[in-house]
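Write out the bound-state structure for 2-acetamido-2-deoxy-beta-D-glucopyranose.
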Amino acid sequence: MSVPKKSNLSTLIQFLHIILDKILEFILGWILGVKRHVSAPKNKDYEELLSSSAVKLAGLIRERKLQSYELVKAYYENLLIVNRDLNAVVDGPFIEAIEEAKLIDERFKNGDITDEELKRKPFLGVPFTTKDSTEVEGKLHTLGLVSRRNERGSKDAECVRLMKEAGAIFLATSNVPEVNKWIETRNMLIGQTKNPYDYRRSVGGSSGGEAALISACCTAFGLGTDIGGSIRIPAFNCGIFGHKPTKGVVNMRGCTFRSGDEESTMVAAGPMARYADDLLELMKVLTGQKMLKELQLEETINLKSLQYFYVPCNNMIQCNPIGKDEQNLMMKVCEHFTNLTGSDVNLATLPHLDMTGKMWRYWMTQEPANFNKLLGNGETLNPFIELFKKLFGRSDFTMAAIYSLIDALLPPENEHKIREATRMCKEALDDLLRDNGVLFFHSSPRTAPFHYYPLVKFTDFSYFSIFNVLHVPVTQVPMGLDSRGMPMGIQVVASEMNDRLCLHVAKELERKFGGWVKPYK
Ligand SMILES: *[C@@H]1O[C@H](CO)[C@@H](O)[C@H](O)[C@H]1NC(C)=O
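---
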C-alpha cells in the first residue's frame, strides 16, 4: 500500500486528533469504570442453537429436527436476562411469539404444511426483531420520544410484513436514538443501550438496539434502516453483518413514517445478522419477487472474475486518522483478494471524499422528512428553549437531539458546489466499479468508542454516510477483535443494483477471517 503524501498542517491536525482521542478514552474510561461484557446464554444446552445462523435454524425447523417452540422460547428467555444489562428493548419480548411457534409445530405435526408453503416461507418458525422506528401493528412505536411513550403501530411496515409472510415470528422492538438521528443509541424514554462486548462502549446508532440483541444472541436476525450509516455503524460496533441495499430496492413504507413512495431519499431498509449467509437469504425476502430477479440475487458469482479496489482513507481532516490495526486489516483483505484472483487489488481515489460531511449534511436537507417536526412529534421545536431546558436538566431530549436542532440553524451548504461534488464522486465510483467491481472501504478509523465520545468527536461516521450520498449498496462485515476486545470491520461496496457482489464478497471475508465473534467466553 502506498501512503499518500501529507502536508505539515495535516500531520499536525492528525496529531491533535490522536491526542484528543486519547484524552477522551482516558476520561470516559475513568468515569465509566471497569469493563464488563455479556454472558453466554444461561441455558448451556441452547448456546449453540442461539448463536446459529437464521438460515440454519430455519433448515432445522423445516426438517423437523428442531421445534420452533423450543427455539423461540430459548431466545425469549435469553433476551429477558441479557436485556437487564444491555437495555436494548423497547417493547417485548412477546409471549404471543411462543404461542405462534407452538401453532407452527402443531401444523408440522399434523402434516398441514405443504412443500409449497415451505417454499413461500423460508424463515418459518424463526424469531426476529426490528428497531422501534419501523412500525409493527399493535407494538410500541415511540422513535425514542417521551411524547410518544404510549404510541403504537397501526399497521406492519412493508419489511416487517414481508418477514412475517416469509414465516418469521416477531419477537421484540429495539431501542433507537430519538427519531433515529444519532450515532449512539440513547434517549430519555428507554435510556442508553450498551455494547455486548463492553458495556461502557457505544452500540452505535441508529439501529443500535438491533445490533446489540443480535450480537448477544437474543434474536435470530433483525431489520434496520440506514440514512447515514444506521445499519452499518451498529453492525460495526457490535461485530455483526449488516447490509444497506441499493436505494429503492426495499420498500420503505412504515419505516420512520415513510409512505414508501418518496422519490429521492438516502434511506434504505436492510437486514442485520450474525452470519453473511443470512443477509443474502433475507434480502431475497425483503426485495420481493420482482426485484429479486432484477438484482439477480439467485445468480452464482465467480469471485475470481471480479475487480477489487480499496481506498486507504477519506482525507477528511475532521476525521480521526485510520488506526494501525485498521490499516493492517485493509492490507490483509487486499492480500487475500490478490491471492484469490491473481491480480492486484488496486488503490482507488474518488474525488471530493473530503467533502463527505458537507455532502451528507446538504442531502439531509433534501430529504422529504422534517427532522425538527419528527422530534417534536408534529410540533416545531425551538432549539434555544430546548437547549435552555437541557442545561437545567428539564429536557425530554438528549444532547444529541439538541445538536441536530441547532445544526439546522447553521448556514446551509453551497447547493451548486455540493451537487457538483456529489455528481463527480458518483461518476467516478460508477466508472471504477461498473458491474463487476467491488470496493473495500474502512468502516471507521477506530473501533467502538465509549458512550458520549461522539458528542465530542462524531465526524468519523462520514466513512459510512458517503455511501448514502452515493446511493450504492454496502455490506458491513465484522473482521475479528482489536487489542481492546472490540469488533473490527470493513465495508464492501458495489455499484447500484449489484448488491449480490457485496453479499458474496462478505461471505468470502467471513470464510477467510471468521466473521462474527461471540461477545462472551
Ligand atoms: C497470500 O498468499 C501468500 C503466499 O501463498 C501467503 O503467504 C499469505 O499468507 C496469503 N495471504 C493471505 C491474507 O491469506
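---
The pocket of 2-acetamido-2-deoxy-beta-D-glucopyranose is lined by residues 332, 335-336, 339 (CB under 6 Å).
The two ends are 35 Å apart (CA to CA).
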